[in-house]
Design goal:
Length: about 220
């Protein structure tokens, strides 16, 4: 095998994504009022925390979803009223998150607005915001795109889904089928960078020797 081919193979092993993942909370079998609820499965290259509630909410039963009441009636976010989960890449991996989607449903006196924020900016700004129609129908596939700030992350990340502008403190709002889409890539350790650099130098030296030999054998003009 040529040195140049070995270099390309080594680089591909170190930087190409090792897998694509979708983290899912389907809440199958839930009663809706659990304190926390686990994802359907753990991805190979990361650890996902259970879905939980902020301290401002009260759990409320509803089978097959994650449900709460006591949402703020204010027209702005209450920092304690949210659903949340975290994802942390395993050692040696980076992650790129591309979108977050969910199904949601309010009671007839539940929230009229909700938004998604993340720990990347300490939950200070919306990644997306939504207005909820004044009915109690299920809205499916409500999606939030995640931009370049969510590429190549090597530390943990938390998402929060805030509900607000509830028509009553007793109104409920539930989520279901939460899906986080993304991929994971191996992150080279320092000795692996050194290996690739060394292979590059070897390849360059070999190429340079070949050029010198070729030039030495050329006929004189």
């Amino acid at each position: 095998m040529k040195t140049s081919s070995l270099i390309l193979i080594s680089l591909s092993v170190l930087v190409y994504p090792t897998c694509a993942q979708i983290v899912t909370f389907s809440f199958n079998g839930s009663s809706g009022d659990e304190t926390t609820f686990s994802p359907d499965a753990q991805p190979i290259s990361a650890t996902v925390g259970s879905m939980s509630r902020g301290p401002g909410l009260t759990a409320n039963s509803f089978a097959g979803a994650f449900n709460s009441k006591a949402w703020t009636t204010a027209a702005a976010i209450d920092a304690t009223d949210y659903y949340a989960f975290s994802i942390t890449p395993n050692s040696g991996f980076g992650m790129t998150m591309t979108s977050l989607s969910l199904d949601e449903r309010r009671s007839l006196t539940g929230v009229r607005n909700w938004s998604v924020r993340s720990s990347l900016d300490s939950f200070s700004s919306d990644l997306a915001s939504f207005t909820v129609l004044d009915n109690d129908e299920v809205r499916t596939g409500q999606s939030t795109g995640l931009g370049t700030a969510f590429q190549g992350l090597t530390s943990g990340l938390e998402f929060r889904i805030y509900g607000f502008a509830s028509e009553s403190g007793t109104g409920t709002w539930r989520i279901d089928n939460v899906q986080l889409s993304g991929s994971f890539s191996a992150v080279p350790e320092p000795h692996e960078y050194a290996l690739v650099a060394g292979l590059g130098l070897i390849g360059f030296a070999g190429w340079r020797r070949w050029v010198l030999r070729r030039e030495a054998n050329l006929p004189q003009a």
